[in-house]
Amino acid sequence: MDHFLYKDGALHAEDVSLAQIAAQVGTPFYVYSSATLTRHFKLFNEALEGLPHLVCFAMKSNSNQAVIKLLGDLGAGMDVVSGGEYARAKAAGIPGERIVFSGVGKTRAEMRMVLEGGVRQFNVESEPEMEALSAVASELGVEAPITIRINPDVDAKTHEKISTGKYDDKFGIPISRAREVYAMAAKLPGLKVIGIDVHIGSQLTELAPFELAYNKVVELTHQLRADGHTIERLDLGGGLGIPYERSNTAPPLPMEYGALIKKCVGDLDVEVEIEPGRLISGNAGLLVTEVIYLKNGENRDFLIVDAAMNDLIRPAMYGAHHDIVPVVEPAPGVETSTYDIVGPVCESGDTFAKQRTLPPFKSGDLMAFRSAGAYGAVMSSEYNSRPLIPEVLVQGDQYAVIRARPTFDEMINRDTIPEWL
Ligand code: LLP
């Protein structure tokens, strides 16, 4: 459920009309609903009630300061994967003890920064990373709390570009070698082993792969404890999928996912962390765009809109589907048309949807891409020198621009021309 509904024939984000935002900030823009973000975060919290837990929002899905602050104020931790994300979390007021540092390629500089600023734990992904962290922590005279991310060799049954839990994926340490790697960690100075981490992929639409992976983690917990390690925390990753197509069956709900977690690890006397991103932010955001032209091709009609692949790359990159809705509610029974929805970028891949059946659109009409709050703005670029588009946050009847559209000068002035040119 989200808070983007038609009221009096006009699509609203909570109590604010999208046409009104468009008139003020111009198109295209991202708009997020505070109520939806809050609701989704709370669903996970409630789903894990009864277990000691922390829900760490995967900031890679949406790292705007306002979004982080909103979730942080509700008690969320943050899952960060770079020095930049760590700096964003800290700037939004998230205390170090609620920040988890994930990622396969942490640099020593990032490790230093995070150790100095405070961190809940590092999710370590390889032996060389472990050695580097041991060296950096020892240099600073501190102990780095770590979990080791294991690769359980489980098929997440999702898009191959976002599947992370098979042996052929670059992530984690093969579970077959986990015991020897934990033994190595226990001997290294500057490290404190506290648990196990696993994350098998994103946009999972079934619980079965989670169950397979979590059961492997449970078995490993028993083995590692028998080997003498302290396993007091399990980071079970993110990845629960969202309904991108309203017409399709919906993926499992957070409550069902939480019940699975309780079933698998409820008896282990551990603290549980999860790292959801998409389910919290995805359906909390829309991308609103204006039709520039309706162009009649030989075989098809193109709606050329003012958003492009640089603003929302998911369709071009993963062939992802985003539901498209008009900002003005169509009259009941209106005759539909079939369009290709494309952006202005000079590549045929700049296509949001092919042969989509929609109510009729004409130049100047506004449309919204749904489910764009996750992996939308964060993956955008200035390709074709198109300035990054604004982000707007709505709460009830109020809204604010939470990232402004840069001017052409601001964009251009980041370049410097050397004096010898
Ligand atoms: N934890 C780790 C270690 C991750 O790698 C990810 C996502 C998450 C948590 C959050 O997963 P989520 O709950 O959001 O599914 N750009 C792609 C998605 C990439 C996901 C990468 N890792 C997309 O647009 O579909």
UniProtKB/TrEMBL annotation:
PROSITE patterns named in the record: ODR_DC_2_1
Broad class of enzyme this protein falls into: lyase
GO terms under biological process: lysine biosynthetic process via diaminopimelate
Cofactor: pyridoxal 5'-phosphate
Catalytic function, reaction form: meso-2,6-diaminopimelate + H(+) = L-lysine + CO2
Record-level Gene Ontology MF annotations: diaminopimelate decarboxylase activity; pyridoxal phosphate binding
Alphabetical list of Pfam families matching this protein: Orn_Arg_deC_N, Orn_DAP_Arg_deC
EC numbers: 4.1.1.20
TM stretches of this protein: none
Oligomeric form and interacting partners: Homodimer.
HAMAP family noted in UniProt: LysA (MF_02120)
Protein task: Specifically catalyzes the decarboxylation of meso-diaminopimelate (meso-DAP) to L-lysine.
Entry protein name: Diaminopimelate decarboxylase
Species: Thalassobacter stenotrophicus
